[in-house]
Amino acid sequence: MDSLVGFVGKNYVIMAGDTNAGRSIMRLKDDFDKLVPIDSHKILAKSGEIGDGNQFCNLIIRNVSLYRIRNETELTTKSVAHYTRRQLATAIRKNPYSVNLLLGGYDKKDQKGSLYYLDYLGSSKKINYGAQGYAALFVGSILDRFWKEDLDFEDGLELMKKCLREVEKRLIIGTRCFLIKMINSDGISVVEKVMINSEKKNEIEEEN
Amino acid sequence: MSYDRAITVFSPDGHLIQVEYALEAVKKGTTAVGVKGKEVLVLGVEKKSTAKLQDPRTVRKIVQIDDHICMTFAGLTADSRILINKARFECQSYKYYYEDPIGIEYITRYIAKTQQKYTQSVGVRPFGVSTLIVGYDSKGFPKLYQTDPSGNFSSWKASCIGRSEKPVKEFLEKNYVDEMDEEQTVRLTIQSLVEVVESGEKNIDIAIMRKNKPIEFLGRTRIAEIVKEFEEEKKRKEEED
């Protein structure tokens, strides 16, 4: 049900998530922020079971903070991805977390953004672009075709909106509202909260 | 029969001798001072003079426990590391459960509780450390707390721990004024240390904790400037007399 999309651009990472929180057929919340900041320059986008997502993200945030306080330095995105994956992998055969994640981060040292795909089984892969949830079915081909390395921000935002438009159009479940966030050297910023309405093409005429 | 072998034993006159010995260890440690101003907290420490070949930057006595809480200590450095580690973990643990940043009194109580535990457990000795903890409480007031090896803790306007505790405390009692601004608080802290620290301002570290701001360590040049101003003032006073 959740849709998460993300990709890496020129010195930034852009991520979007739908803002629905639901249970079976009911929409519980339509302003749910699924892009959780882990520290000043990293976002963990969560999808799946809401409770598990909350608990797991909380765990990661607290441990990343503890590392920062203890060592007076921040972890790199790669390290956080590895740590997160390790937590998921040890949990899967004991008390699994039903969460699939996209981890996006900007490292000041490399001056580059990076994106990681993590799932509840403990897989982890560094990717340039990707999605979680139903969005992945539609968005994969669009990004395959249009993603280029070092897209600047305007082009990146356009591409992201293209993806979200496709999700809105094709997913039978009403996912109209998306929250787009961006991470660059200045940190995390909310780009836009988009409401996407695909144009109604066919109108049904009422028979009198 | 000696009553200082195992810490779990009271002496006939009601003392826990091991805890008192721990306090002696603290009295051997380098001095640490904490001063509370109207809206600022300042910590000052005497740094142990490092050997020629040693990197002085690796000896840090003022540490951050959380984004909004700092502490320093006097006594056995290795023991303090354990306490600091536990405190850091507790801060994150609190935030994990309650989502709010930990309160200054809460963490002080925790550190004091830990120190007390080690005075009433099998096979362990007390921490040879007294700590000064600074931060802002939930209402936004600056707070300075002190703990000692017995597990006591109390809130102070200004306090000192370590080897020059007596003279510095006397100095603070004479010169402390309520509601000082940042400049006055920093000056008082530096002044109280300069008198007692051997080899002067190069061996002093000053840290300023402002509300909702990360801790700031005062630069070497600024400390030197302030110390110079004191010395000139002193000279002037002597010339007048």
From TrEMBL, chain A:
Q: Does the keyword Nucleus apply?
A: yes
Q: Does the keyword Transcription apply?
A: no
**Gene3D superfamilies per record:** Glutamine Phosphoribosylpyrophosphate, subunit 1, domain 1 (3.60.20.10)
> This protein's superkingdom?
Eukaryota
Q: Which GO terms describe its cellular component?
A: proteasome complex
Q: Where in the cell is it found?
A: Cytoplasm; Nucleus
Keywords assigned by UniProt? Cytoplasm, Nucleus, Proteasome
Q: What is its main location?
A: cytoplasm
Instruction: Please name the InterPro entries in this protein's record.
Output: Ntn_hydrolases_N, Proteasome_alpha, Proteasome_beta2, Proteasome_bsu_CS, Proteasome_sua/b, Proteasome_suB-type
**What does the UniProt record say this protein does?**
Component of the proteasome, a multicatalytic proteinase complex which is characterized by its ability to cleave peptides with Arg, Phe, Tyr, Leu, and Glu adjacent to the leaving group at neutral or slightly basic pH. The proteasome has an ATP-dependent proteolytic activity.
Family under the similarity heading: Belongs to the peptidase T1B family.
Q: How does it assemble?
A: Component of the proteasome complex.
Task: List the protein's name.
Answer: Proteasome subunit beta
From TrEMBL, chain B:
Q: Which PROSITE patterns match?
A: PROTEASOME_ALPHA_1 (PS00388), PROTEASOME_ALPHA_2 (PS51475)
Main localization, broad class = cytoplasm
Q: Name the domain of life.
A: Eukaryota
Q: Which GO CC terms are listed, alphabetically?
A: proteasome complex
- Where is this protein localized, as stated in its record? Cytoplasm; Nucleus
Among InterPro entries, the record links this protein to: Ntn_hydrolases_N, Proteasome_alpha, Proteasome_alpha-type, Proteasome_asu_N, Proteasome_sua/b
A Pfam family cross-referenced in the UniProt record is: Proteasome
Q: Which CDD domains match?
A: proteasome_alpha_type_7
Q: Does the keyword Aminoacyl-tRNA synthetase apply?
A: no
Give a yes or no for keyword Cytoplasm in this entry: yes
Domain Proteasome alpha-type subunits spans what residues?
3-25
* UniProt keyword terms in alphabetical order: Cytoplasm, Nucleus, Proteasome
User: Which family would the database say this protein is a member of?
Assistant: Belongs to the peptidase T1A family.
Q: Which PANTHER family does UniProt cross-reference here?
A: PROTEASOME SUBUNIT ALPHA/BETA
Q: How does it assemble?
A: The 26S proteasome consists of a 20S proteasome core and two 19S regulatory subunits.
> What name does the UniProt record give this protein?
Proteasome subunit alpha type
